[in-house]
UniProtKB/TrEMBL annotation:
The lineage of its organism: Bacteria, Bacillati, Actinomycetota, Actinomycetes, Catenulisporales. This is Sterol desaturase family protein. It comes from Catenulispora pinistramenti. It is a multi-pass membrane protein. Residues 88-220 form the Fatty acid hydroxylase domain. The keyword Oxidoreductase applies. The chain crosses the membrane at residues 12-32, 52-74, 81-100, 143-171. Its main location: membrane. Keywords: Lipid metabolism, Membrane, Oxidoreductase, Transmembrane, Transmembrane helix. It comes from the Bacteria. It is found in: Endomembrane system. InterPro entries: Fatty_acid_hydroxylase, Sterol_desaturase/TMEM195. Coiled coil: none annotated.
């Protein structure tokens, strides 16, 4: 089993299934339309698919960095964990906790958001949106290292990461409403993830989970779906150009850093949350409400 997992990227194998289920979703929208759903738009879908293909290509390089880091940390781990069923289950849950931590950091640290924002840049929500992935994800490697240090080998970690990502494909749809209450309580579902992709004020920075929603409930970042979701960013970028989609937030960070008055502000623009600026800090301190 180890040799099979070592040699196969599960997400690459799943590409035909991605295409099949997108086609089925399109057919369902054609024959069973719902005026409240965004559906597909040709330019938006093309951009999402291009970002997905670009992510595969770029991650050939980022992946080597990640593999080397995880293998290196595992080599110095004080113990080893074998591939028993119990180990796989523990790793599956533990990985989702670290995914939750990574995902939360991606929304709270601007330099990480500059990579993750790609996934939130579509104003549509369908299965193609799941494939709109970053080309610059190397910064997330650090969140895998505790698992390697705990003794889990690289092949188990990367197989689990693939399974987690595969699960998240199907929740990018408006075609499925709320599910059976026990499922909604424990698992990440289309309803929960629609909230995560919302730009509504009450939906911002909510529902970070990958497979499970229990960590959001535990750490108070859970929000149930209520009002209709407005997909996209609070300030949408207005482009379908894949290169601009990939790097627009890095360019914005560079502009803010160049225009900053001091080093404290420069570090703030890089390491604080999206939308942070010295002006917003001053507004909070003085109680002002008219600062954009």
């Amino acid at each position: 089993m180890r040799r099979v997992i070592d040699g196969i990227d599960l997400t690459t194998l799943a590409v035909p299934f991605y295409v099949l289920f997108m086609a089925l979703e399109l057919l369902s929208l054609r024959f069973f339309p719902d005026p409240g759903e965004q559906g597909y738009a040709a330019k938006d879908t093309t951009t999402s698919l291009t970002m997905g293909i670009g992510s595969i290509v770029c991650n050939l390089g980022w992946g080597l960095v990640t593999v080397a880091a995880v293998a290196g940390v595992h080599a110095v781990a004080p113990w080893r964990i074998g591939g028993s069923l119990t180990s796989w289950i523990v790793l599956f849950v533990a990985y989702d906790f670290f995914y939750y931590s990574e995902h939360r950091a991606n929304h709270r640290v601007r330099i990480l958001w500059a990579s993750h924002v790609v996934h939130h840049s579509s104003r549509h929500y369908n299965l193609s949106t799941a494939l709109r992935q970053t080309w610059t994800g190397v910064g997330n490697t650090v969140f895998l290292l505790p698992l390697a240090l705990a003794g889990f080998p690289a092949y188990m970690i990367f197989a689990t990461a693939s399974m987690n990502l595969l699960y998240q494909f199907w929740i990018h749809t408006e075609r499925i409403g709320k599910m059976w209450r026990p499922v909604e309580f424990v698992m990440n579902t289309p309803s929960h993830h629609r909230v995560h992709h919302g730009s509504n004020q009450g939906y911002l920075d909510k529902n970070y989970g990958g497979v499970f929603i229990v960590f959001d409930r535990l750490f108070r970042s859970f929000e149930p779906e209520g009002e209709p979701v407005r997909y996209g960013l609070t300030k949408n970028i207005g482009t379908f150009n894949p290169l601009r989609v990939a790097v627009h937030e890095y360019a914005a960070i560079a502009r803010d850093v160049r225009g900053a008055a001091d080093w404290r502000a420069r570090f703030g623009y890089v390491l604080r949350g999206p939308g942070w600026s010295p002006a917003t800090v001053a507004a909070v301190a003085t109680g002002a409400t008219n600062v954009a």
